[in-house]
Amino acid sequence: MKLPISRILTPLLVLTILIIHQFAWLVVENGWYNSLNSSGNLPQQVSVNLGTHAREWTFFYTALTGSWIHGNWEHLMGNVFSLAGLSLLFLLFIKKGWLRFFLIQWVLSGIILFFLAPKGSIHIGASTWSYSFAGFLTTLAFLHPNRKVLSLFFIICLWYGSMWWGIFPIDPRISFQGHISGLTTGVLIALLGRDFWLNRMFIVPELPVLESQEDSSKPINPYDGFK
Fold it and tell me: How far, CA to CA in Å, does 136 sit from each of 124, 190, 199?
């Protein structure tokens, strides 16, 4: 299946913004901005200002900014590659709606994380989005009437099997609350918009075989008329 360039541009644009944003963050953090600051002091750390501050109402806006912030290039590129692969699966199985889903999950996952995480904790990284995409595609695979769509679930397990461990509090450096928030968001979007998204999938649902169709498939006995 060939993907039109127009459908790929939006995900590429979002991933490009993520990379440019990280570069700008490093410019500030490494002090390149210092020469422009007459006081000689660096501005407050971007990660502290814009990371999601859980349950702190004065920082409620960070529910929308935390996922754009990354600790380093390794953190960023890990999330970029993960999002790129899941976005490709989205485009291959769903006709349109990538931007719609991205915007909804961005807002919803950030809000869920804001309330779910312990008060005062700060969370950064776009892995929340990766879990939203994975949860969404996996849920649709099980909701679709055509059982062949379950191959989508097995592809996700094959490519991202280790990511499911991220929803457990194993590594204190990793925001498992962010992963749970993303996974919950993806599942909710798929369940609440079931008909909307299933109708936009490329795979046609399997239709039940009618009794009349079953009868027509049987060979005709020419002697039946003489009974």
Answer: 21, 5, 15
